[in-house]
Amino acid sequence: SPPGLLLLTSFLLHMEESHASPARLVCDNRLIQKYIGEAKDMEKRAGQCQALPALSCPTVLPLVDFSLQQWKSKSNETKRREILCDLALLVGAVAGAQDQECGARQLSHLYQHANSFFLLLQTFSWEAGPWEPGCSSRSMEQMHVTSIFLTYRQLVQGKLRFFFHDLAKDLCK
């Protein structure tokens, strides 16, 4: 569909300046490693802020830990929906925390990256019907900006990396 193609194109232009394709995003393991490195870098830079204040109100973050055994037993569509729920919560948390002076630039980058992954994953679908909000993602309340960066890094390093790995088995033969 044209809107989905437009979102995918904008994601690929934003995330990778070279000649990327949807298959390359999934099939080229170096890209996800690049995003993991960027997530670590954002987390490190945010942690360097002197006297990083607590958030003015608690933010709800997804619990992104998972059992690899359980993860492998899920369909790609179930995995996609679970990651979309996590990303939706994370994007909302980042948007609510952007009033921070120190770390604002890193929060802006994190928002762009997390939202780009969110938009991209909405274009993938194996079941009838588009993704609809209304998640029952496991979550926790946090008062520290650094928790947002940690959650994003864990999500990219965990579920998202394994999801792309699973997709690559079918798409990259």
Automatic annotation (TrEMBL):
Pfam families: EPO_TPO (PF00758). The keyword Disulfide bond applies. It is found in: Secreted. The keyword tRNA-binding does not apply. SUPFAM superfamilies: 4-helical cytokines. One of its GO terms (molecular function) is hormone activity. Belongs to the EPO/TPO family. This is Thrombopoietin. It comes from Phaethon lepturus.
